[in-house]
Amino acid sequence: MRVLILSTPFDARARLDGSRCAIADLVAGLVAEQVAEPTVLVTEGGEAPPGARAEHVGRAPLEALLGTLLAQVDVVHAWFAPRVVTATALRALRVARRLPFRSTSGGLPIVQTVASVPRSFAFASAALAGDVVVATSDATAIALATHGVDARKMVRVPSPFAPRVPDGTVAAPRDLLLYAGDWEFDDGIDRALHALSRLAPPRGVFPHLAIAARGKTDRAREVEARVRRKVEGGPLRDRVTILGEVPSLLPWIAASRAVLLPASTTYAKLDHPRALLEAIALGVPIIVGPAPSLTELCDDPRVGEVARDEAELRDAIEGALSRPRVPTDAISKVLSPRRPDVVARRYGELYARATGARSRV
Description:
There is one protein chain. By secondary structure, the chain is an alpha/beta fold. The protein is about 35% helix and about 20% strand. The protein is built from 13 helices and 13 strands. Strand 12 (about 285-290), helix 10 and strand 13 form a beta-alpha-beta unit. The longest helix has 16 residues, at about 340-355. Residues about 95-105 and about 355-360 have low confidence and may be disordered.
């Protein structure tokens, strides 16, 4: 089975975000299980994840490149959330192929993975073009069904995740809490800072918060500057360290008592952000906000807590300093369904379902 993975162009040499890490893990699973021969779009001069065939995206129109590629594959696996960019890419597929999308109409079959709940469903009808639509969380599946996606073609498969070993150690305070998110799409930073400021005698707990956040748009610098002014000019200046974007979160996660993402939305993130999965893999408890997909990670209370308001977040932060590590059986319950080999075999079934033929290399 020859599969074109259609996503934002890849470069394995660059520091990868959550979606690209998930695609790299998916490629590893597809190759190891001999489920499919994957082709990945790659930036000009970039490298594909190991095991994938690289198709470099240059200055030529996407339609021209896809016109060549679609004659060489059996199925397209689109890894997108339904938004303007998705609709543009899938329109390029239509132009390139000059055929209807649906295999039942004779077009090239599409498996589409929606890895987070979109902010708006205004483009859903144009962007949700898959013969099979995969939601990576229950929350996204419910949202898609609510907005008219045919339940008969929708399935639930988590994003693949392969745990990594921390690359070194960091000199960190003993009672470290780590915030892992982004600057501009996240309301969790202000929530965490506000809750931390409320921890004072007679509660007597003084954890140290490290903020690891990456910028995704030009607005990131503005938000980061605002947060820095808030921290450096107030009573939290000795209790908060702003790391910004670091080469690897793993040493910081390993040194933490808990990893925080008290966000109310997962927009511009994966349904289940990799930093939280990395924490669980290392036995570090998590504290999450009320975003529906985040709460799914805490179905087992031994994994972490859901803080739905300021009081719950304050209590969760205080409790994190005496909270035990996540036990092995709870870790396995979260991570086993996400193993790249398990996810790859599931996608092999879906590729076969979309093409109407038995999956084979």
